[in-house]
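new request in #modeling-help
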Amino acid sequence: MRVISHVAVNVFKESVRDKVLYSLVGFATLLIAASYLIGQLTAGQDVKIIKDLGLAAIATFGLLIAVFIGIGLVWKEVDRRSIYSLLAKPIRRHEFIVGKYVGLALTLLVNVAMMTVAFYAVLAYLNTQFPETVRAGWPAPATDPGMLRAIALIFIELLLVTAIALFFSTFSSPFLSAALTVGLWVIGHFNTDLRNFESVVESASGAYLARGLYYLLPNFAAFDIKTQVVHALPVPPSYLVTTTAYGLAYIALLLSAAVVIFERRDFK
Amino acid sequence: MTWRAVLLFAILIGSVVGLQALHERQGGPLAAPAANVLYVRSPEAMARLALSYDTLLADIYWIRAVQHFGGSRLSTDSNRQFDLLYPLLDLATSLDPRFDVAYYFGSIFLAEPPPGGPGRPDLAIALLEKGLRAQPDKWEFVQSIGFVHYWWLEDYEQAAAWFRRAAAFPNAPFWMAPLAATTLAEGGNRQSSRLLWQQIARSAEDERFRNEALRRLRQLDAMDQLDRLRAIAALFRERHGSWPAGWGDVIRAGYLPGTPVDPTGAPYRLESGVVTLDRESRLSPLPREPQRIR
């Protein structure tokens, strides 16, 4: 456990050195600029638009970090040949993989947490710009804590993307890993279409294949409850629990696969 | 950084800015400004392409719809078009079916008659019906459909039927049923229009709606005032044998104490006996007077 935490802390420090946290400045600038501009560009719904934009930006900034750092987690060590000195130390390969993953997860956690603070700060400011009569017409308060549920699922989604990127990073080049990770993320949003594939094809085998892929591929659409929280629609706690459990199980699967592949790699 | 580097940067930045200014002076890009283009019109296709950004894309299409309506409305081009308005609203409301403001404002934009709008009350009703399908418990959509029938189609029977339907909703306000009855009995007169706008001003959740309803009420006030001023001009002609040339004639004759102003403070115009609203007034143009129920 100590070894894993050492590796994780090093990954976090490296991401800070790589100026990953600068993304927070970009996020804050985007939200502040948007909150000023939206009022000039549209007719009503400023707070709804800032909520949509803020949640989408948290997901996008996190996705970029998860993909572009995740794909280099293992590859970088191999490319720099620092893997030899690392594996010569008392670090077992699975500890190396899990440590790398936890380190990036920690970076993402800090990023998402700070973006959430900035997001709520901008919403709290916007809240003061509208009279009570206008606020009464909103489906939810500007600083509705219910939005944290969407942010929590975004975070689980980012952990899953990181696990996918790390998995590919154990055996392929960064370019290929990025392409495969983003490809899986995109396909994961078309999951419902795979489920209903039988209604558009006549071939029974094609329908079975699509149904199989539906169960096998990661269902990223399940993590998206942004619309529900922005419109203050009910999200059953059981849905949150099931989706979180699904995400964690998938992450465990991918990390296990990454460990198995990495254990078998020959670095001689 | 040495002074040479600073000088080099200053020269290069100056060159870029200078050349851009020259470029602009020569008329800008050679290609004609791109016409309004909407590459994806299918809401189903866009919903798929949106991945998890459907609500954000809905916001972007809504902003485009507002900009398209505002830009076309303010355009000086005599052939101004609102072609993209409905497709943009359709996309926005398909990507976010609970985008209430897009339904409400969108229907107002669509129903607005030319030259200020596309004059498509049919599409306004289609948009509101789409909203009603997405949220069948919203009596406000039903009321708005009745409103389009009342104000733009001047079909008071249909309007009354929709108001009655809205009144049947368990959460509908108490005044909806009397409004349906008044519409059926007196639809088209200015008083029933006033009642309709008063109720909208009272029940509107969005301040912009409320302000729009208040503007419409002021327009009705202005229409009443115009009637009185026209009567004064006619009286002047009857007694003096000619139309007043301007308000000065009317004031000197003692019919008015001063230049009359509309509810926003803009002076009414009087030219050759014709009394009109000032074109610069925030109430201009006045709506066409609804016909009394037949």
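bot summary: The longest helix of chain A spans residues 93-128.
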